[in-house]
Design a protein that fits this description.
Layout: H1 2-20, E1 29-36, E2 51-55, E3 58-64, E4 76-83, H2 88-102, H3 107-118, H4 128-139, H5 144-147, E5 150-155, E6 170-173, H6 179-208
Antiparallel strand pairs: 1-2, 1-4, 2-3, 3-6, 4-5, 5-6
Length: 209
């Protein structure tokens, strides 16, 4: 009975961990720039957040981080998905991404501020949104409840087609497990528990025979 209780607990713990924890990727993902999705443009006429980017075939709305790295529609490259916790600039960019989602009217200045974090001397990047992001991170350092909602797509240099320049880093919301994956895991854990229960029941019957 103790064994059954432990397996049931382990099954519940694994399911809870999968639901609550950010998805981790051990291997690089393939990014493909689909199109700029921003409703407006920056003061320089460049597209702003959101950028429609395919991540292993699934289209996401991401924020561009490197103004000097130019990408073209249809271009593909590889990137590593990384946690942003503990990196001040990435955490500030996460606040800007979140603000652009909550207040779409700020998207242009949020994007300019994000570029300013990683590209020095950019016109218009030192705006009120950048100051707000810096103040938030200063007051909430390493706040995993907030920063774990976002993840960095760190481009792998040289993974883009020859002649296409340097690939782009992007920031996006943390991927969550698909419902079908959760159902599959839950079914597997339930079967494991039922098998353990039957073994435990047969064991008791054998001892009592």
């Amino acid at each position: 009975m103790k064994k059954l209780g432990f397996i049931t607990f382990l099954s519940f713990f694994c399911l809870l961990t999968l639901v609550s924890a950010p998805v981790a990727f051990a291997d690089p993902v393939t990014l493909t720039f689909i199109s700029p999705g921003g409703a407006g443009a920056s003061a320089d006429g460049d597209a702003v957040y959101p950028y429609n980017v395919s991540v292993n075939g699934s289209v996401n709305s991401l924020m561009c981080l490197n103004y000097s790295n130019v990408i073209a529609e249809g271009e593909s490259w590889q990137a590593n998905i990384q946690s942003i916790v503990g990196n001040t600039l990435d955490e500030e960019a996460a606040w800007l991404l979140n603000d652009a989602n909550v207040n779409p009217g700020n998207a242009i200045n949020d994007q300019l501020a994000a570029w300013g974090l990683f590209t020095s001397g950019l016109s218009g990047s030192n705006n009120a949104q950048l100051i707000a992001a810096q103040n938030f991170v200063s007051a909430n350092p390493n706040d995993t409840s907030f920063y774990n909602q976002f993840q960095l797509y760190a481009a792998i240099p040289g993974s883009q087609p020859a002649g296409d320049g340097e690939p782009q880093d992007f920031l996006g919301e943390t991927a969550t497990p698909e419902p079908s994956s959760l159902i599959l895991l839950g079914t597997g854990l339930l079967c494991l528990t039922l098998v353990a229960f039957r073994k435990s029941k047969l064991s008791r019957l054998t001892r009592n025979a």
